From TrEMBL:
This is Methenyltetrahydrofolate cyclohydrolase. Catalyzes the oxidation of 5,10-methylenetetrahydrofolate to 5,10-methenyltetrahydrofolate and then the hydrolysis of 5,10-methenyltetrahydrofolate to 10-formyltetrahydrofolate. Keywords: Hydrolase, Multifunctional enzyme, NADP, One-carbon metabolism, Oxidoreductase, Photorespiration. It comes from Solanum stoloniferum. Pathway: One-carbon metabolism; tetrahydrofolate interconversion. Pfam families: THF_DHG_CYH (PF00763), THF_DHG_CYH_C (PF02882).
């Protein structure tokens, strides 16, 4: 039996081989290789910083509960920090904790001079149908200068207002744009559609595509006939969190498709008991799109790379290092 990771590699290999023989097949946008190049340049900067001033960037994560996808994201961030030479700290809080507990952890990291970037792993768990964490209240406690996830209300507000610049751009949105630019995908004047309007991915991606002069629409749970809207997209960003939501029939021939979805599905043959699939039906998309990101190995690695870039920028600013 082929292991899931080997299955994914085999699918990518077959797709790339097929693409070489058929110009009408999708090009696979390899987020892993792009992320590795960025991490290599970050590691060089960290070494230079350490040699020059004896300090390195520090990143802190606040994790509430044990959501399976959140645990996977945090694991990836820890590994990435070690690869580039960052200091890493994590505050793990039980799902039963209070908002004040989360705010206290944030305040402690705000005051810690060795920590230059802080993120609260979102989404926070919902305690019940009636009770949930107030993410806005929590993010307001976060120091703007350490908001490397880019979710502080002032950062999002500045991203939305023409003529203003946020200190940090949300990592997934930034990673999507970097993938498009590094793949020589034209954004200016193109029709872009974002599926999903979350504060974490959908809204920031919408705003950032607008900044790059695309004509942007959002599809959400209340959109009628979403497939009609998506079929007009030259660039489609799928961030709904619904496995295989986007079928081949939703795509405009030749579209560029960025699949942000990271959905765990049960797989007893996998090491962790599950595997990850995207919001886009990959096997159908590669027959219609001109370029598509795989899951895993597409947007996810770039999100982590952008987090490292933001943290390096925060450290340089705090330490007056150029």
């Amino acid at each position: 039996m082929i292991e899931p990771k080997k299955k994914q590699r085999k699918v990518l290999l077959l797709v790339n081989l097929f693409s070489a023989a058929n110009n009408d097949s999708a090009r696979i946008i390899d987020g892993r290789s792009s992320a590795e190049e960025i991490k290599s340049s970050i590691a060089i900067e960290v070494s230079r910083m350490k040699e020059s001033i004896g300090k390195v960037p520090g990143l802190a994560v606040i994790l509430v509960g044990q959501r399976r996808d959140s645990l996977a994201y945090v694991r990836n961030k820890i590994m990435a920090c070690h690869e580039v030479g960052f200091r890493f700290s994590i505050a793990e809080l039980p799902e039963s904790c209070t908002e004040d507990d989360v705010c206290d952890a944030l305040s402690n990291y705000n005051k810690n001079a060795s920590i230059h970037g802080i993120l609260v792993q979102l989404p926070l768990p919902q305690k019940s149908l009636e009770q949930h964490f107030d993410e806005g209240k929590i993010l307001n406690v976060l120091s703007l200068e350490k908001d490397v996830d880019g979710f502080h209300p002032l950062n999002i507000g500045n991203l939305a207002i023409q003529g203003r610049e946020p200190l940090f751009i949300p990592c997934t949105a930034k990673g999507c744009i970097e993938l498009l630019l590094s793949s020589d995908v034209e954004i200016v004047g193109k029709r872009a559609v974002v599926i999903g309007r979350s504060n974490i991915v959908g809204l920031p991606t919408f705003l950032l595509l607008q900044r790059h002069h695309a004509t942007v629409s959002i599809v959400h749970a209340y959109s009628e006939n979403p497939e009609i809207i998506t079929r007009e997209a030259d660039i489609l960003v799928a961030a709904a969190g619904v496995p295989n939501l986007v079928r081949g029939s939703w795509l405009k021939p030749g579209a560029v498709v960025l699949d942000v979805g990271i959905n765990p599905i049960e797989d007893p043959e996998s090491e962790h008991g599950y595997r990850l699939i995207g919001d886009v039906c990959f096997e159908e998309a590669v027959r219609i799109a001109s370029a598509v990101t795989p899951v895993p190995g597409g947007v996810g690695p770039m999100t982590v790379a952008m987090l490292l870039l933001n943290t390096l920028e925060a450290a340089k600013r705090a330490l007056c290092f150029t």
